């Protein structure tokens, strides 16, 4: 603005000289011009507003990665706990099954060699299919165990409680319904094992069945009987029950 005033002053001074305006009056023109020089209008400045805080892309990515790592670790822990629980369950199930098997072996039959009041015992001297079937029922057998035991007994002795095979050449000294073999060292060992007083005890049908139940592990293992191994019992199994 000062340069503009100087230029105006020079013009005014020339005009004064030309028209004869007193210099004292003209000197005040600069002040007048200054007083009337329009000032620049400046709009009031709005108060500065704080810039909103915005998470940077790198910060967001870092946070997401941290959460992903935490979730991955928690997932791994959960999977490990699940595997541990599955292994513990299997151990407990195996122990329960073993305990049940031990209990069954300790008590092979709820009433071995006893009587079942609902099934009448055969008359003295009875023998054959129906008599064998009744004795087995009287000992407490039923269902599939009864059917297999009946078939093996019929194949071994024909249902005759007095059956005996003393053929040493074939390794036999077998007694009763299920032909319990007492040859050689088997005899003394089985007398003691099954609490028998003599071999003749095996001619009693209920005693013979009691020993059979224990030898077969409650009618679950028939391998000691040749009639089962060679399949001859199947004829009686397929024609069950006796008529």
Can you tell me about this structure?
The protein has 243 residues and is mainly α. Among the domains are: 2-32, no CATH class; 129-238, Lysozyme (Orthogonal Bundle), CATH 1.10.530. The chain is 56% helix and 2% strand. It contains nine helices and three strands. The protein has helices at residues 2-19, 23-36, 57-106, 129-138, 143-157, 186-193, 205-215, 226-229, 234-238; strands at 164-165, 174-175, 180-181. The protein has a three-stranded antiparallel β-sheet with strand order 1-2-3. Helix 4 (129-138) packs across helix 5. The protein is elongated. The N and C termini lie far apart (140 Å).
Structural category is mainly alpha
Mean pLDDT: 81
Order of helices and strands: HHHHHEEEHHHH
The counted number of beta strands is 3
In short:
The protein has 243 residues and is mostly helical. It is 56% helix and 2% strand. The chain has helices spanning 2-19, 23-36, 57-106, 129-138, 143-157, 186-193, 205-215, 226-229, 234-238, and strands at residues 164-165, 174-175, 180-181.
Set down the secondary structure blueprint.
Layout: H1 2-19, H2 23-36, H3 57-106, H4 129-138, H5 143-157, E1 164-165, E2 174-175, E3 180-181, H6 186-193, H7 205-215, H8 226-229, H9 234-238
Antiparallel strand pairs: 1-2, 2-3
Give the key terms.
243 residues; mainly alpha; Lysozyme; three-stranded antiparallel beta sheet; 3 strands; elongated
């Amino acid at each position: 603005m000062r340069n503009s005033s100087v230029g105006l002053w020079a013009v005014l001074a020339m005009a004064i000289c030309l028209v004869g305006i007193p210099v004292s009056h003209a000197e005040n023109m600069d002040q007048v011009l200054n007083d009337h020089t329009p000032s620049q209008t400046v709009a009031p400045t709005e108060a500065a507003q704080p810039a909103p805080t915005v998470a940077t892309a790198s910060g967001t990515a870092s946070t997401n990665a941290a959460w992903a790592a935490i979730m991955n670790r928690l997932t791994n822990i959960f999977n490990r706990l699940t595997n541990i629980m599955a292994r513990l369950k299997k151990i407990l199930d195996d122990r329960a099954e073993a305990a049940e098997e031990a209990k069954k072996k300790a008590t092979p039959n709820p009433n071995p060699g006893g009587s079942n009041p609902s099934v009448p015992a055969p008359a003295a001297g009875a023998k054959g299919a129906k008599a064998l079937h009744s004795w087995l029922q009287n000992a407490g057998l039923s269902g599939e165990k009864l059917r297999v035991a009946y078939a093996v007994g019929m194949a071994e002795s024909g249902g005759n409680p007095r059956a005996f095979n003393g053929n040493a050449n074939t390794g036999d000294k077998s007694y009763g319904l299920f032909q319990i073999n007492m040859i050689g060292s088997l005899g003394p060992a089985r007398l003691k094992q099954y609490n028998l007083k003599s071999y003749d005890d095996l001619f009693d049908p209920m005693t013979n069945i009691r020993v059979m139940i224990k030898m077969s592990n409650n009618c679950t293992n028939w391998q000691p009987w040749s009639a089962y191994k060679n399949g001859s019992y199947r004829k009686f199994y397929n024609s069950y029950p006796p008529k």
